[in-house]
């Protein structure tokens, strides 16, 4: 097991290095310069590019950047005067992480509950209703849902705030917008596995032993039904924890997704690289954890890997 | 199972009600203080007048910083940090006498050193100031910026704490108009030493000499300005607090106005005009800006004046604006439609006849004369524009009109804003969209752009006659003669040589709560100012 983890971590670092290198040269190939603003004069522009070392060849810039990165220094933002990339991440990541975590929690809880309900109910209306809900949830993109929620609960009913982060209430609508898609997927997964599992022998045996139906469902069946969900939640979490540009923009949330997209539009090279590296590390990290968890739960994977 | 689901539903409903309730309470508290919440575009740049600044500084400075003097809507001088000034006969030495009672929001006096502090720091290239070139009329400023002269040789003197003298390279009749620019605004010499140490966004060190001071700054979310009770004119200031909230998206801004989370939302999309038609909330302002197209003179056949004229005459600007949106208004001028002539009080461009009239027949004739009858043999030109909605719509209409009227093909190339700037700067285009918002209230801000040596002249204009007219106007001290020279220059560039294709000027669409009064428009730029805003008492 230890060797397996070590191997995964090493591969992770290699992937991160490739990511940094590729993004570094891609940002330099992109047309445009961070200091263009439409009102800046040629003279000021070239003075600035010299000041930031952008007049040097990219290979030289890369060596300097990599050296700093090894010391944990992401550098300073080009477009936010006096603000380091680490400070931007330190500010935006907690917001995005809180929102992403809330969305995953909502998706897991409501998705599981709805899936079980759909699989066990005998009412056609409930079955159909949940099915329709999951169809809509996976079919409508989250920015459309976000706008609809903002219009309904914010503009029309005036129940919830839709801009900024002044309180807990501000998290409700964006978290729901983000949670709807994964919740629908989880509902379907739970529903499908529940339907299969309920016909299995161990369920019949448990019933024959006289165990209560609810207990059989929630302890025995659910345990098995959650295995595929765990495999799905890993990548879904990686996606949610790196932020969604559209949802963050609609609800004016100062998260990572928004920072990332604006940094690209601004050609803020250090910020683009810093955020790419950080998000890459998060995604790789979550994948390692999921893999290790999977290996721990299923010895077959562990054996083939070692 | 049903019960479990019902419990979830109940919890979430209670949650919604509780959080909804919190929000309402906050609002009630807000109403009892004289506070307004203003929605502005995403955070860009810092707050140091000598540093790398953009929209956020502009929003901050109109409420927090006093420039030496400014002009009111009637073109009269309004003294702010200065109480008087003198100028020598040649308009080369300008002396300002500062208010003796003016203090920073921490109580320390505002001195002439605070003004030279900004200037000296802005003249270091590493400051990142995009406005440094507006200091170049000052003696040796350009040399200092380029590292060819010492800061001591700069034509800025501070003989005592209350006197500030500028010695210029050559006469500059619009020098007073430049004073509203960031680089001429003071920064407290006790704290403002280096833009990169973050003094500008920290309430302890970011002191103000204007009616409001920075109380809180939360990056990417909002900043709060509070009334500066030490302000020399504090009695005239009615608001206690202004909160500026950042928005990344215009629709979210309009929604937040609708939910009551902001009281003022500026620069909204034109669809808001229809939604709020006839309501008191809607406040339309003119911007001092012109959207136009640069035809590249180094590209054939755009080097032929007849072709440039044909393109200009074949565009139906009325129709264009009708399609693009209610917030645009046709113009055939280069100088912004709503820039005022301080001498007459009228719009400057109304002081002369229009540079040209649209005429499709004439356009066709000219194109035939240039060797392309009915567009035959005319090469396909590419139009570069940024991927903003307004510019994309414009591009499509122009493509359609030129096909219909001249039977020529225009290829559209939408670019990211930064890419568009770079390609334009490098002169890599056939036709390129351009927009210019006045930096200061003088037509020179426009005319100087087409000079042979101008940074913004990226289409290869080299016109000795034009350069002569503009430079002559630049040193002419008689206002009437000067206006005449500037009209001549514009007529030459737009009406005879057709160096540009003017399209339209824009209106700004704003929403303001009807009970908020006293919001003014800054004549130089068209931006809104909240210094004298107040909340009307309800009857």
From TrEMBL, chain A:
Q: Which InterPro entries match?
A: MetI-like, MetI-like_sf
Its keywords, alphabetically, are: Cell membrane, Membrane, Transmembrane, Transmembrane helix, Transport
Query: For this UniProt entry, what's an example GO CC term?
Result: plasma membrane
Q: Identify the residues that the record assigns to the ABC transmembrane type-1 domain, covering every copy.
A: 93-294
Q: Endoplasmic reticulum: is it a keyword of this entry? A: no
| SUPFAM superfamilies the record matches | MetI-like (SSF161098)
- Membrane topology label: Multi-pass membrane protein
Give the matching Gene3D superfamilies.
MetI-like (1.10.3720.10)
Lineage: superkingdom: Bacteria
Entry's transmembrane regions: 9-30, 92-117, 129-153, 159-181, 229-251, 271-297
Compartments (UniProt record): Cell membrane
A Gene Ontology biological process in which this protein takes part is: transmembrane transport
- Entry similarity comment: Belongs to the binding-protein-dependent transport system permease family.
The identity of this protein, by name, is ABC transporter permease
UniProtKB/TrEMBL annotation, chain B:
> Cellular location of this protein?
Cell envelope
What GO CC annotations are associated with the protein? ATP-binding cassette (ABC) transporter complex; cell envelope; periplasmic space
Q: Which residues form the Solute-binding protein family domain?
A: 77-456
Q: Which family does it belong to?
A: Belongs to the bacterial solute-binding protein 5 family.
What is this protein identified as? Peptide ABC transporter substrate-binding protein
Organism the protein comes from: Extibacter muris
Example GO molecular function? peptide transmembrane transporter activity
Q: Which GO terms describe its biological process?
A: peptide transport
Q: Which InterPro entries match?
A: Peptide/Ni-bd, SBP_5, SBP_5_dom
Domain of life here? Answer: Bacteria
Keywords tagged on the record: Signal, Transport
SUPFAM superfamilies attached here?
Periplasmic binding protein-like II
The cross-references to CDD domains, in alphabetical order and at most eight, read:
PBP2_OppA
């Amino acid at each position: 097991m230890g060797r397996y983890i070590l191997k995964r971590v090493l591969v992770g670092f290699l992937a991160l290095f490739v990511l940094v290198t590729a993004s570094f040269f891609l940002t330099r190939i992109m047309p445009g310069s961070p200091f263009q603003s439409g009102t800046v004069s040629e003279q000021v522009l070239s003075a600035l590019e010299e000041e930031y070392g952008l007049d040097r060849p990219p290979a030289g810039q890369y060596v300097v950047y990599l050296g700093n990165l090894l010391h944990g220094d992401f550098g300073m933002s080009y477009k936010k005067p006096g603000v380091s990339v680490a400070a931007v991440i330190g500010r935006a990541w907690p917001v995005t992480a809180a929102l992403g975590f809330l969305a995953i929690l909502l998706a897991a809880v409501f998705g599981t509950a709805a899936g079980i309900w759909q699989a066990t109910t005998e009412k056609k209306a409930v079955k159909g209703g949940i099915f329709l809900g999951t169809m809509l949830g996976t079919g409508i993109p989250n920015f459309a849902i976000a706008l609809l929620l903002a219009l309904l609960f914010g503009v029309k009913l005036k129940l919830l705030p839709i801009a900024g982060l002044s309180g807990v209430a501000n998290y409700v609508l964006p978290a729901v917008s983000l949670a709807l898609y994964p919740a629908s997927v989880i509902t379907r997964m739970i529903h499908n596995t529940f339907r299969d599992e309920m016909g299995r022998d161990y369920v019949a045996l448990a019933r024959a032993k006289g165990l209560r139906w609810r207990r059989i469902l929630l302890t025995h069946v659910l345990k098995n039904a959650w295995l595929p969900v765990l495999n799905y939640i890993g990548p879904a979490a990686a996606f949610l924890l790196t932020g969604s540009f559209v949802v963050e923009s609609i609800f004016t949330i100062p998260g990572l997704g928004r920072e990332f997209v604006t940094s690209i539009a601004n050609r803020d090279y250090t910020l683009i690289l810093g955020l790419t590296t950080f998000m890459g590390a998060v995604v790789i990290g979550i994948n390692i954890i999921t893999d290790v968890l999977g290996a721990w739960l299923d010895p077959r994977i562990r054996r083939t890997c070692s | 199972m049903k019960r479990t689901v019902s419990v979830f539903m109940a919890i979430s409903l209670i949650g919604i009600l509780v959080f909804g309730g919190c929000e309402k309470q906050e609002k009630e508290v807000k109403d009892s203080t004289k506070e307004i919440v203003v929605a502005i575009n995403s955070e860009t740049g810092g707050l140091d007048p000598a540093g790398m600044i953009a929209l956020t500084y502009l929003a901050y400075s109109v409420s927090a910083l006093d420039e030496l003097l400014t002009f009111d809507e009637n073109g009269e001088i309004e003294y702010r940090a200065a109480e008087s000034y003198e100028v020598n006969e040649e308009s080369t030495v300008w002396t300002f006498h500062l208010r003796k009672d003016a203090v920073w929001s921490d109580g320390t006096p505002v001195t002439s050193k605070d003004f030279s502090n900004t200037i000296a720091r802005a003249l270091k290239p590493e400051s990142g100031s995009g406005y440094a070139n507006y200091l170049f009329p000052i003696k040796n400023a350009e040399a200092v910026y380029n590292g060819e002269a010492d800061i001591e040789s700069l034509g800025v003197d501070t003989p005592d704490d209350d006197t500030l003298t500028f010695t210029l390279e050559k006469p500059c009749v619009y020098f007073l108009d430049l004073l509203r620019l960031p680089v001429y605004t003071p920064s407290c010499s006790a704290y403002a030493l280096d833009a990169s140490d973050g003094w500008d966004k920290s309430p302890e060190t970011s002191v103000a000499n204007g009616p409001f001071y920075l109380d809180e700054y939360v990056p990417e979310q909002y900043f709060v300005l509070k009334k500066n009770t030490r302000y020399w004119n504090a009695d005239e200031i009615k608001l206690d607090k202004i909160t500026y909230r950042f928005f990344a998206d215009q629709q979210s801004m309009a929604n937040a106005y609708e939910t009551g989370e902001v009281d003022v939302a500026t620069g909204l999309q034109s669809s808001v005009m229809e939604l709020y038609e006839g309501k008191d909330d809607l406040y339309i302002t003119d911007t001092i800006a012109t959207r136009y197209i640069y035809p590249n003179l180094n590209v054939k056949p755009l080097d032929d004046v007849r072709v440039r004229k044909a393109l200009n005459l074949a565009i139906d600007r009325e129709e264009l604006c009708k399609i693009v949106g209610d917030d645009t208004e046709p113009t055939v001028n280069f100088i912004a439609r709503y820039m005022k002539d301080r001498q007459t009080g009228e719009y400057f461009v109304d002081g002369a006849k229009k540079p040209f009239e649209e005429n499709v027949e004439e356009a066709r004739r000219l194109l035939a004369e240039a060797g392309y009858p009915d567009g035959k043999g005319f090469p396909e030109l590419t139009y570069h524009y940024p991927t903003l909605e307004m510019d994309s719509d414009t591009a499509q209409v122009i493509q359609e009109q030129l096909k219909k009227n001249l039977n020529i093909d225009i290829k559209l190339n939408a670019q990211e804003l930064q890419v568009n700037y770079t390609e334009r700067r490098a002169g890599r285009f056939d036709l390129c969209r351009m927009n210019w918002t006045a930096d200061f209230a003088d037509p020179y801000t426009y005319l100087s752009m087409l000079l042979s040596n101008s940074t913004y002249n990226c289409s290869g204009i080299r016109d000795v006659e034009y350069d002569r007219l503009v430079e002559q106007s630049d040193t002419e001290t008689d206002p009437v003669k000067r206006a005449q020279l500037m009209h001549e220059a514009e007529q030459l560039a737009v009406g005879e040589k057709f160096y540009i294709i003017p399209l339209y000027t824009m209106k700004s669409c704003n929403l303001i709560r009807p009970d908020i009064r006293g919001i003014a428009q800054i004549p130089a730029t068209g931006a809104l100012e909240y210094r004298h805003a107040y909340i009307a008492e309800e009857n």
